[in-house]
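ugh ok so i messed up the first submission bc i forgot one of the chains. this is the corrected input, ALL of the components this time, i swear. 756 residues overall. if the numbers dont match what u have on ur side tell me asap before i send this to the collaborators (the ones from the other lab, u know who)
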Amino acid sequence: MADFDTPEIKEEIIVPHIQPGVMEWEGPFVAKPEHQADLGFPEELVDDWKEKAIAKMGELAGKYRSVKVFLDSCVKCGACTDKCHYFLGTSDPKNMPVARQDLFRKVYRRYYTFAGKYFPKLVGAVDLDEKVLDDWYNYFHQCSECRRCSVYCPYGIDTAEITMAAREVMASVGKGMKYSNEIIGKVFKIGNNLGLPQPALADTLEGLEEEVEEDTGVKVKYPLDQKGAEILLVTPSADFFAEPHVDGLIGYGKVFHEAGVSWTLSSKASEAANFGLFIGSYENMRKVALRIREAAIELGVKRIVFGECGHAWRVAYSFLNTLAGPFDFLDQNYPIPQHILEFTLDQLERGNLKIDKSENDWMTVTFHDSCNIARASRIGDYPGSQFETPRKVIKAVCNNFVDMRKDTIGEGTFCCGGGGGLLTDDLMEVRVKGALPRMTALKDVVENEGVTHMAAICAICKSQFSKVLPYYGFTMDQIVSVHQLVSNAIVLTGQDGADEADDASEAAA
Amino acid sequence: MSFLTIFFAFLFYIATAVLVGGLAYKIWVFYKTPAPLKIPTTPAPITATGVAYRLFREVVLFESLFKSNKWIWIFGYLFHFGMLLVLLRHLRYFTLPVWWWVDLIQPFGKYAAFAMIAGLAGLFARRILVDRVRYISAPSDYLMLLLLLGIAITGGMMSFVVHGIDIVSLKAFFLGLMYFDWQPFPGNALLAIHLFLVATLMIIFPVSKLLHAPGVFFSPTRNQIDNPREKRHVVDWALKLESQDNS
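and heres the new structure output, hopefully the right one now
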């Protein structure tokens, strides 16, 4: 991989002048035959890929209203052109949302519209050829499907939908992406993205129990495959070992412990992530989602709770009921599925958790809204709860909280730069450059508000920032899990050195 | 019957048929294409009323565009609402007697032409001057603005510069078309150009990006209710996948 310079952080987020072609060469490794085969795709680029791709394009435009309407409706007004973090970080005009869509749209026009069939030059329609396919492959893997553009488009055109369609077309003619496809294969075979088998998981969880007991003197359980538990926790597999993810998992366990509910992880559904979303494959996304249904039935749980993960929460919140429902066998008194933050906030509001906020006094925390949570879900029962619930929880366990600039959070939040299946070392340049807007907003509060840490609720964000923060002069431990903050502040019933627990929390334990 | 009369009579019959038929077909295609997943851009309304209100704000206020870019919003708004007033004013050529509210807006409708022209000129300038927008523009994007500018300018000239257009005969011509009782087309070059451009626009509409007009109502990110946990959403082709599992 070529070397590259980390962009310089300016005072403000600057809209650059376009530099055509500067990111033309950056694309991820192509999926190997076995990665393709596991997902039901052809092993390598098929001979008649052109015809197949064009046919697939038509098929998708017939199956997805989003694709059809978005391809037909864009007026090239330019409203989205300065909204993508990858454009802001790279200056490559094909990273402007409309230009990225146009890579697909100009081919669609050529084969599926009157104007493109008869007046291709006039409307900018082109034939599908190798050059176009290369552009598709590289630029549709420089999109993290974060949907920021869809907020600002007057017609709500969501480039993520086009990216997913393009990736599905490419995978279906034999040119899939190694990173995502290999991972989905692992989920099918072993149960999670990291390929951790059941014994390794059991071992890890046992280690966590020992660690927490050493720290607090309290036996907090981290159960695996426990039949008859009330709650099935589905969490990204990074939570099982990576920093700062695992501190979040410790936090979930402490909250469940104090709430007095029985819960379990599942070795079958030991992964919240669903990379089927990234590659735009409904079938694969559904197959991944069905594991969770099966695990819930086998374990006989009453509720499903999801750990901190952005796209996983999108799939859980928005699609799980569609893909793997109906969940009539679960307790209908709770949201299906429920986010761990909904659970924790509820416990906090009921006063079931004893909190010592001063444990987090050494930090000043800001919060990074994850793209999929911000723009494709709720965490609570009202619109916008996806922004307020995490902040309420942080403020309940932390004395020092500051938000970043308003246009960089909430619905306008900038992606971390590693979402959408881009969290792979073969895309390092686009990941680092794509993080520029977030890094700019972070630096602002670090310098002016004394922020020391940024909390996130997404495994991809956490991994991406751990890797990318050092490029911009921060340290990798400045990214923390929200439940890590909860874990720091929570005072377990009977914890060493803690005040005598009051009756209420004793009863709850 | 003059050549112009026959030409414009056929042109407007064809243009109307293409516009109505083409749009109806496109809307039907949008309507029958399934939306298999819930993808509203959140925060999104959680009730149908809320969605109607969101679409209303999108169509009437250009809410998302306002968030996005104030210049495009101003120019786009001037153009679209100028055009709306102008179009409503033009109803007077197709109604007998003229509806009272069409009479009421007549003066506003005339001056709205300037708003339309200003908006279009601003959008055209952006297309040339802003490097990002220039990059994404195809010839058709410029031509579309020029076509609309041509319509607005020729129309405005007939209102404010060139006087003596025989609008009484023009109205008789259009009413004649509507009731299949053809009347002569008033021979005037400016009017002929104006109407020719209008007919061109009508014909282009269903095969162009002007489809954004119906498209916005069918955009799943804007028209879906945010209630996936509460209500299961499955389309037919997805149900088939489920029945394959069970067989």
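quick check: Residues 3-32+43-246 of chain B form a domain with the Fumarate Reductase Cytochrome B subunit fold (CATH 1.20.950.20). that seems consistent at least. Chain B touches chain A through 63 residues (CB under 8 Å).
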